[in-house]
Structure formats: structure tokens, C-alpha cells
Write a structure and sequence with these properties.
Layout lengths: L4 H8 L5 H10 L6 H10 L36 E11 L2 E10 L5 E7 L5 H13 L5 E4 L3 H4 L1 H9 L3 E4 L9 H15 L7 H17 L11 H18 L1
Parallel strand pairs: 1-4, 4-5
Antiparallel strand pairs: 1-2, 2-3
């Protein structure tokens, strides 16, 4: 199939996904399967226009915290941690992924996958992150109802952590989470046929292990997040010993 054919059809029918596009092309006399159409659409950066799941809906009546990151110079581990939710498409519908990350090292501290948007899976990821190391000074999220809830924000306040939230419509306030989400989708989600939650959990788990331990990060002078995490721990221990 000519790679010039599909963009022309896409401009005419931008709401067609790979399934509908393959049907349309077959009616035009171009014999092609859905999987090949999907690969071509991904390769050309084409995506059907449709209403996507919204993962950052605030809940009326819940407290919205101010953003504490403006002008902040992040220099050490656990100074700022953040969490974000993204939707993961599978053959049987969407799943929801929450990941907790340390801003300084870019290390993913914990993550959970769920088929619902309730607060429970976010709270589980938060609890694991809080158990895995020292308490952060600031924890930043968007204004989604999972994060503004007493179950989530209350845990942070009880632990003595200052809660920070992005301004509405300001994705740049949580730019590191946005970059992680983009890298994960291109490195794991779009490269696999995620048929169900089991396949998604396996692919995401393998990619996060790769991201933390193997993948060099430009912001860390070519070190992996795990190496940056260990270097920060070593420097902290040295300062404590010398003081």
C-alpha cells in the first residue's frame, strides 16, 4: 500500500481509527489488514480524532492546593516527588497507570495499573513510594480528584509532606511526568499488542525496569535514574559522616 494513500484518506476522514480505515481501504480495492494500517498510522504520527478519557477531573468541594514549584531549584533526592495518571489502551479498553517519580533523579519509585479511576490504586502507589525511602519535602500532582481526595492528600499531610498541585491547564508544571508518560508510551505501549491487563502490566513493568536501570538520561549526564539515585544516596551519606 502506498504510504501516500493513507494520509489523504486520513485528511478526509480524521475520525477513522485503524479498524475503520482498513475497512475503508478494502472498499477502495486496497487489500490491507488492520495491524498493518495501525503500524503505518503510528509511523506517520496519525491518530483518530475522538474523545479521550479525562484523567484530571477535579472533584467539587475538595481542596485544591497551590503550586509550590515556581522558581524552585531542585538539587537533591526527595526534595520533590510527583505522581501522574495516564490511560493505557488495550484490545479490551483502557487501563489507568499511575507512576510516582523523584524529580531530582528521574527515578520511578512506584507504579500501579487499574481498570478504574478510583483513588485506591493511587494510594497504593503512594504508600509504596513513602515506604521506599525518606519522605519528600514536596509532592506535586495535577488537580485530579484522586489526588485532591483526603485518602491521597491526607496521607501526604499526615506524613509531613507539603502538597503542591499544577495550575489548571498548566501541563508544564509537571513536565517530568509528561516526559515520562511520553517515553513510556513510545517505548512500551505502542510497540506491543496489549491484549489485556496482564500483557500491559508485563510490558510496563519491563519498560520501567529498563528506564530505571539501563536507559541513560541526558539530564543526568548520561547516567541512569538508578545510578543518579545511588550517587545522591552516597553523597548524602558522605555529608552525614563528615558533619
Amino acid at each position: 500500500m502506498s504510504t501516500k494513500t493513507q494520509p489523504l484518506q486520513y485528511l478526509q476522514y480524521p475520525f477513522y481509527g485503524s479498524r475503520q480505515m482498513s475497512r475503508h481501504l478494502r472498499r477502495e480495492g486496497i487489500v490491507v489488514g488492520r495491524h498493518r494500517v495501525r503500524r503505518l498510522m503510528r509511523g506517520m504520527g496519525l491518530e483518530a480524532i475522538y474523545r479521550k478519557p479525562r484523567t484530571s477531573e477535579p472533584q467539587p468541594g475538595q481542596r485544591i492546593y497551590p503550586c509550590l514549584l515556581g522558581g524552585l531549584d531542585i538539587r537533591h533526592l526527595c526534595q520533590v516527588e510527583c505522581a501522574d495518571i495516564t490511560c493505557i489502551p488495550t484490545a479490551h479498553g483502557f487501563l489507568y497507570l499511575v507512576a510516582v517519580m523523584d524529580w531530582h533523579s528521574r527515578s520511578v519509585l512506584s507504579w500501579r495499573l487499574s481498570n478504574t479511576m478510583d483513588v485506591a490504586f493511587c494510594a497504593e502507589a503512594l504508600d509504596e513510594a513513602l515506604r521506599s525511602g525518606p519522605r519528600p519535602q514536596i509532592f506535586n500532582t495535577d488537580q485530579g480528584s484522586q489526588f485532591t481526595s483526603e485518602t491521597f492528600a491526607g496521607r501526604l499531610e499526615a506524613a509531613g509532606v507539603r502538597v503542591s498541585m499544577d495550575g489548571q491547564g498548566r501541563c508544564m508544571d509537571n513536565i517530568f511526568s509528561e516526559r515520562l508518560r511520553r517515553s513510556l508510551k513510545y517505548g512500551a505501549v505502542y510497540l506491543h499488542e496489549l491484549r489485556d491487563g496482564l500483557a500491559a502490566r508485563r510490558a510496563i513493568g519491563e519498560w520501567i525496569a529498563f528506564y530505571n536501570v539501563v536507559r541513560p538520561h541526558s539530564a543526568m549526564d548520561g547516567r541512569t535514574p538508578q545510578e543518579a539515585l545511588q550517587a545522591t544516596d552516597t553523597a548524602a551519606a558522605r555529608r552525614a559522616r563528615d558533619s
